[in-house]
Amino acid sequence: NAGVTQTPKFRILKIGQSMTLQCTQDMNHNYMYWYRQDPGMGLKLIYYSVGAGITDKGEVPNGYNVSRSTTEDFPLRLELAAPSQTSVYFCASSRQNTEAFFGQGTRLTVV
Amino acid sequence: GIQVEQSPPDLILQEGANSTLRCNFSDSVNNLQWFHQNPWGQLINLFYIPSGTKQNGRLSATTVATERYSLLYISSSQTTDSGVYFCAVGGRSGGYQKVTFGIGTKLQVIP
Questions:
Q1: Counting beta carbons within 10 angstroms of the beta carbon of residue B110, is it exposed (0 to 12), middle (13 to 18) or buried (19 or more)?
Q2: Core-most of A21, A24, A80, A94, by most CB within 10 Å?
Q3: Does B100 touch chain A (CB under 8 A)?
Q4: What pLDDT, on the 0 to 100 scale, is given for residue B40?
Q5: pLDDT digits over A78-107, tens only?
């Protein structure tokens, strides 16, 4: 039981490049979330999903896209990377109204 | 959306001292978690506590949902307790569960 797994752990992107942050969970949770954490700040919700095929915007969705084709996977796509997207990204999962479990994070730098 | 306020923002303790961290939230919630983010950035679940009191070793937490606050107690602090403590609350918005984080309390325990 690996919990929530994120890949990669670190990545440097050039401005304008695109990439996908991968997130998978093996706890059969229906809820999944993507957060970003800027230095010295709390976590802000980018997108979330309440089940396969259902996604919705969070607090800071601009510049990102998500999909949820399976219960296990919830990838986050950056299409045109910008320096403002330099951050640490966390994926999490939970059942409805229960505790959330977090991955170890992806540290992304856009230069 | 739900507003989450944590206090104090920063705290320096001598090893062995006790402390209380507070989390206030602006609306009814149906879940609340406390996390510890260690110096390596990893988010560690401490408590899932939408109401009531829980204890785990030197840490305990109390949530008074009717008065919209939660408290995290750290007793006999150790240097390994250093890091940032986050409160995250879950409430329904648009019919779906969302989890909102406070900006955290940064704790430094000195020997």
A1: exposed
A2: A94
A3: yes
A4: 87
A5: 999 999 999 999 999 998 778 889 999 999
* Count of H-run helices and E-run strands, chain A: 0, 11
Q: Is B28 on the interface with A (CB under 8 A)?
A: no
Q: Divide the 111 residues of chain B into consecutive groups of 10 and give the mean pLDDT of each group.
A: 92 97 92 92 92 96 96 97 94 67 95 94
Peptide bond into B50 cis (omega under 30): no
| Best residue in A43, A106, A107 for a mutation probing chain B (most B CBs within 10 Å) | A43
What are the chain B neighbours of A89 within 8 Å (beta carbons)? Answer: none
Rounded Cα–Cα distance for residues B72 and B66 (Å): 17
Are B7 and B103 contacting, i.e. CB atoms less than 8 angstroms apart?
no
B residues 53-82 lying closer than 8 A (beta carbon) to A: none
pLDDT of residue B100: 86
Closest listed residue to residue B65, CA positions, set B39, B32, B98: B32
What is the distance in angstroms between the Cα of B58 and the nearest Cα belonging to chain A?
21
Could you tell me where the beta strands, DSSP code E, fall in B8-56? 10-14, 19-25, 31-37, 43-48, 52-56
Nearest Cα neighbor of B14 from B75, B77, B73 is B77
Phi, psi for B39 (deg, rounded to 5): -60, -15
The nearest alpha carbon in chain A to B91 belongs to A97
